[in-house]
Amino acid sequence: MNYINNQHRYYTLDFYLKERFQSKVFKVALNGNFSCPNRDGTVGTTGCTFCSPNGSGEFAGSKEKSLKEQFDEVRKIIHLKWNDAKYIAYFQANTNTYGPLSKLKSLFEEAILLDPNIVALSIATRPDSLSREVIQYLGELNQRIPVWVELGLQTIHEKTAEEIHRGYLLPIFEKAIQDLREKHIEVIVHIINGLPNETKEMMIQTVQYLSTQDIEGIKIHSLFLLKNTPLGESYLKQPFPLLSLEQYVDITCEQMAYLRKDIVVHRINGDAPKNLLIEPTWGLKKWVIMNEIDKEMKKRSYIQGCKLLY
């Protein structure tokens, strides 16, 4: 993989999409009005302590609108600049396999037919919300259109997972990967840097672990403290240490050095909802963060996977 020609020293999603689909490809975030077992009492009632009441769906469409209305709103904006764009239908808000199989089939079948230029279906969910029947269906769907499943891991460290009320243990995550990969479904994993009480070494260990797993993609961002979340409210009452921009860049560069070379980096920093963000405010500087990571990796002569022993 020639990361240098990619203008980055890691395997970016944009580079991967252009290679695979020979086109500019955009994700269109859709809201299927799903709930979450970590909110409705099945697993828990508060959700993960960092998660917004919208289930990280601030950038998805409105659940009050049809999928077609949600999709068309985004497509009109994209077409102002990219007339020949292709799309990924992305179910983002809450847990998008948590519901009756009939609902999943109805929504996913509708989504892939919204536009002839939809090239993949991406589904954000929890590893404890993937029943055998759901995985069987997604495997069948994957034979018609590429299906990606995004799993929120955040950390491999069980003490941290308990503190953030993640609601499942690591073996459940590993079983979900195994079951999905048996159906040749691509797996993308979310992790968070800067969770309370985690050290730089612990965050690097999470990426080292993921490099041993059969996954195709990763999403990385810093911890965002948001209004109306348990962790955000706790911080307002009694502030605790957060990563600085410099620390985040340092840690993420080291993680890239331990990340397997074929894993696509779907995101190397997040998009915090400005109206909800408490801290860190540097998290709003998306391009600054990316540029600083690029500069630091070049300074260290790093490329993705350069510290892995094969």
What is the general shape?
globular
**H-E order:** HEHEHEHEHHEHEEHHEEH
Q: Estimate the strand proportion.
A: 15-25%
Name the CATH homologous superfamily. Answer: Aldolase class I
Q: In angstroms, what is the radius of gyration?
A: 19 Å
Q: End-to-end distance, in Å?
A: 16 Å
Description:
The protein has one domain: Aldolase class I (TIM Barrel). It has helices spanning 13-21, 67-79, 101-112, 132-142, 158-163, 170-182, 200-210, 230-237, 245-257, 286-299; strands at 25-30, 86-91, 118-125, 147-154, 186-193, 217-222, 225-226, 264-267, 277-279. The two termini are 16 Å apart. It is an alpha/beta fold and 310 residues long. The strands form two sheets. A seven-stranded parallel β-sheet has the order 1-2-3-4-5-6-8, sandwiched between helices. Strand 3 (118-125), helix 4 (132-142) and strand 4 form a beta-alpha-beta unit. Helix 7 packs parallel to helix 9 (245-257) and helix 9 (245-257) crosses helix 10. Helices cover 35% and strands 16% of the residues.
Short description:
The protein is α/β, with parallel strands linked by helices and 310 residues long. It contains 10 helices and 9 strands. It has one domain: Aldolase class I (TIM Barrel).
Explain the layout of strands and helices:
Layout: H1 13-21, E1 25-30, H2 67-79, E2 86-91, H3 101-112, E3 118-125, H4 132-142, E4 147-154, H5 158-163, H6 170-182, E5 186-193, H7 200-210, E6 217-222, E7 225-226, H8 230-237, H9 245-257, E8 264-267, E9 277-279, H10 286-299
Parallel strand pairs: 1-2, 2-3, 3-4, 4-5, 5-6, 6-8
Antiparallel strand pairs: 7-9
Helix pairs in contact: 7-9, 9-10
